[in-house]
Amino acid sequence: MNLGAMLDLGVDQKYLLKELGNLPIDSYKIKVYKDKRAGITSTKVDVIVPPQKKASSLHTLKKRTFRDITKMIKQSNLSANVKKISLDIFTRLAGLKEKSTDIKLKTCTSTKSAQSIRLST
After folding, report:
1. Which of 4, 66, 11, 71 is CA-nearest to residue 33?
2. What angle do CA 117, 50, 82 make, to 5 degrees?
3. How many structural domains are present in the chain?
4. pTM beyond 0.85, yes or no
């Protein structure tokens, strides 16, 4: 959702894809397209990960904790400004998740699915 919003706000798609390549993440593909729901058209970005060996569904993908995500961003080749903004976004998302579910920040996780990246319990 955030990636699509960034594109709708004017971020160049080639630039965004290049910057995503600076993250230390294994194989993935990005699919960008326009989507219309309830009469509203926006850009949809799917992050598609290859199926894991012996995985019965995409729900068995490794979950990343908030700590894992912040470490990945800090160790990336992203610019200092992009790292700061990214860390701020994930901190705010995790904080909202914490408030809405009574789950402590350090236990929030991010699960990849073919449809999106989301914070999950």
Report:
1. 4
2. 40
3. 1
4. no
